[in-house]
Structure formats: C-alpha cells, structure tokens
C-alpha cells in the first residue's frame, strides 16, 4: 500500500455522566485525511483545508502522532499527510482527536498494521497531549474503536467497546462561541462529595447497562451529570433552554459534548432525531449566535478507509 | 394462601467499585422465614432462632416492614412471622436486609401480590432504616431482585437487574470480629477528588459491561475500589493478606462485603472457587480469630418460596 484515504470521525466525549471516561463516534462528521508514501524519510503535512492549523508536523496533532510512530517503528520511506477538517476545531467534538487518531490509523496502515488498536490509542493520546495539554483518551479511543467506548483505566490503558443500540442517533448544536478546554477544565471542582460521586457512578452503571440491553428508557434515565455539567453549563449560551426543549421534543437526554460549546442529545430513531433537530434549531434561531447543526448515527466502525492504492 | 415459607438470601453490597450502588445475592446463605395468616389483626413475630434479635415487631427489621405494608394495604387478618437467621448479624452480608426483604416478599404474597418488586424494595428499605439508620437499598434490592443489582437512583428509586455470567462464584470469609456499620461509615471520606471519582466510575462501567458480556477478565480488572476499601480495610484483620492470597489463587478480585468484616471474592468456576476457598481458609487458620467460610453461586432468582398452603 502506497496511498490511503480515510475518514476519521468526530466524537462526543463524557456523554453526561461519564466525564473523562466515555466517548462515542459520529457517522457523518469528521476529518478526511490522506497518507502517501514518499522517497524522502520523515513526516510532511503538505496540506490542511477547512481550518487554520500548523503544517509543522512537530506541533500538529497528526504530525506529532506520526513522528512518534516512525520513531517506534522506523521505515525506509517517508509519509506525506493531507488533512481536510470536516468541522471546526474548538467545537468540543474532538477535532484534534480526529486528526490524531486518523494519523495513528493511517500511518499504521502504511507500516503494515504493526500496532494494535490499544497502541494506536496510546499514540493518538500524544497528539491530544501536544494540542490540549492532557493525554486524554476518551475522544481518540472512540474515534479508533468506533461506537461507545469506555476508558476503564489509564494505568495500564484499558479501553472497553460498548455495544450501541441500532436506533440511537446523535443530534447536536455547535454554537459558534469559543470555549477553551483550559477554561472548561478550570471551572471544574477539584473535590466532590462522596454522595455525588455515588450518584454519578450509579448513572454510569445504568448507561452502560442500558447500552448493552437496548434499554432506551434506562439510557434516558442515566444521561444525568450532577458534577461537570452544573459547573460548566454557564460557559455555553442557552444550554438549559436547548436541553429542556430537546428533551421535551423526545430526546433521551442532552449534555455538553466534551468541554463544549457543542450541546449533544441522544435520540431513539430518525423521526425523533429530526424533530429534536428542528426544535433545537428553532430554539437558537433568534439568539444572534451563529451555529451548526448535526444529525448523525453512531459510527460503530470507527475510522474508515475510503480509498487505497 | 394461608402459610408461606421462604428463603431470603444474604447479599454482598458495594462489590468493590460500586459503593452504595451495587449488590449481589448469594445462593447458599440466608434467612428462612415463615408467614402465617391469623385471625387476630396485626403483625406478631413469634420466634427468632439463630440470632438474638428483638421479637417486638416495631423494632425488628422484618416487623417494621410488615407493619408498614399492612398500613398501606389493610387486611382483615393478621400475620405471624418466624425467622431463622441462617447467618450471623453484623457480618456485612446484609443480615437485616435479608429479614426486611423477606418480610416484604412474604407479606406481599399473603396480601395477594399487591406490590411490585420496586415497591417491595421501598418497604424493605424501611427495615434497613430502622436497624441501620439509613434507608439503603443495595442489599435489599439484591435480595428481592436476585443476581446483581444496581441502585441507579434513589430519587426516584430505580433498580436495574444486571445479568450474571453462569460460572461466577462467591467465596467469602467472615472473621468473627465486630465492625459496626456506623463506625465503617465514620471512616469514609466526605469528599473525594474528581480524579479518584473518575477512576472509580470507569471501573463501575467496566464491571457492568463485563457482567453483561461474560467478560471475566474485564470483571477482574474492574473489581477495584480506590475510595472506600483504603479507608475501611484497617477495620478488618488481615484484609490485605486474604485479598492478595485469594487473587494469587485465581480469584477475579476481592473486597469488603458491605461495611465488613466479611471479605468477599468473585471467582470463575467451581474449581477455582474451591482453590480460593482453601487458600483463604489456610490464610486465616493461624490467626487466633474465629471465622466462617462461604462458597456460593450467585442467586439469580432472589427470594425463593420453599413451601405454601
């Protein structure tokens, strides 16, 4: 294989109760990336479209990952990478993660599939660390494994792929305001009461059980976050209104995607998803804030190969 | 139905990572209770064997539950209750919960099955409140629903029954030392770091996923408690040694059952369970502390009817 074109999905991390532990991958939103073997050794990012990001591989999420992989697994060729960002960085939909995970996947293909998905996740985490300051795994694991993923442990890294009920849909709104991950982390409590922690982990258990058993009511009941959402929601304009209206329109639940500002909802079936989509759109129509809407299936496959030769 | 004899199981609450949220029911250990319709209205506890507990219905876990049920659902008959405690109160195996849950189940049978399992759990929680000071649901829900149960929410009460892999076995040791629930609660931290909470809820998610998918390795990896066990284990003599030896002998994991002093382990299959049983027994043989050993399947049914007429 000398050339590879892939789709690397956008991801929703946290998923209400599962702060820093849960993620899910989207079907219709993500980056398109190409990887081409070259005679000159090393990594070159030759083109980035769709967003203003550094071409210098040493400071680009995808570049950092690719360089680390070649250091671990030296090759007698180089790789040119192009990235088309299919959505805006800073949305809370794992933009750096999509590029980092995509790079891990793509470079691995050209290296003859030398690494496991867990190792790819570890490489991709280097891209997260380089761009966000934290080697967080929830977005990159969801992009690489697809579906819902649970980061069960960091030391050692352990990723669990959770089954996804077939009718689950994601509707999300990305208001065009800036929420820096750093700021979103700064508002979090360092300590929480044991009582609140118990409430939260009971909901994590409920959500995981609901996903395994296709129990949409249990999923809905468990999509509750009493710790992170209350601390962060003021950073996102009209969060409460969007959430309330979405649930009124039939959404199973709603929350902050990653560190925001995107607000995600989970819905059962296309009809409800479309109704929730319109409701959220109407809610934001008169707010004097630009926004993008998303409606997507859950991407159960993860990163997809679009073309090779 | 004028008479009913039941078995109400002992239960392991918390199950390592799931403090105040998870419970499981045992097959071979529990209370035997009878319920007999009488002409004189009211609840009378006519006999308790196997433990020294009050016969006065107003202060007995089973009595409190039965009285509350008759208040909610008046009957033109009375009920005589006998209780044979099959194991020692204060063991950390939900002794008051077995009697409270058993009373809820038995009285409901004589009332013509008027209440749902969720309502029975709510009644049984009154017995827990009367005897332990807290209307905790993890033990009573496991006794009533059987198998593994998750108390997903208290307000409103929501219980989720989690599937149980067929080869799962419980081996436990009950050292004959007293650990008061009140003392075991007093050593708990009121606040924990968000970081530790994330670690814990990721393990709760892993455990629930492992139970759903028969993934014994995932169950083993997830049986970790970084919050409650470190705070409590000094109350239980030789806890670390028992845990280490049990895991060395093949146990999936070990932890404190409820608020102790019983130490439980989960094992895959009878052979490993027997080997873990012997190992723990040997560990405690020279400790100058009396102890009971338990080896049990998980009781997936909950409370069982032994006889009626």
UniProtKB/TrEMBL annotation, chains A, B:
Lineage, broadest ranks: Bacteria, Pseudomonadati, Bacteroidota, Flavobacteriia, Flavobacteriales
Primary site of residence: cytoplasm
A Pfam family per the record: GHMP_kinases_N
The entry's keywords: Amino-acid biosynthesis, ATP-binding, Cytoplasm, Kinase, Nucleotide-binding, Threonine biosynthesis, Transferase
SUPFAM superfamilies in the record: GHMP Kinase, C-terminal domain, Ribosomal protein S5 domain 2-like
UniProt domain GHMP kinase N-terminal: residue ranges: 65-147
EC number(s) recorded for this UniProt protein: 2.7.1.39
Occurrences of domain GHMP kinase C-terminal (ranges): 208-284
Annotated GO MF terms: ATP binding; homoserine kinase activity
Functional description taken from the UniProt entry: Catalyzes the ATP-dependent phosphorylation of L-homoserine to L-homoserine phosphate.
BP terms from Gene Ontology: threonine biosynthetic process
The protein's name in its UniProt record: Homoserine kinase
Record organism: Tenacibaculum caenipelagi
Pathway: Amino-acid biosynthesis; L-threonine biosynthesis; L-threonine from L-aspartate: step 4/5
PANTHER family: HOMOSERINE KINASE (PTHR20861:SF1), HOMOSERINE/4-DIPHOSPHOCYTIDYL-2-C-METHYL-D-ERYTHRITOL KINASE (PTHR20861)
Key word Nucleus present: no
Subcellular location: Cytoplasm
HAMAP family, per database record: Homoser_kinase
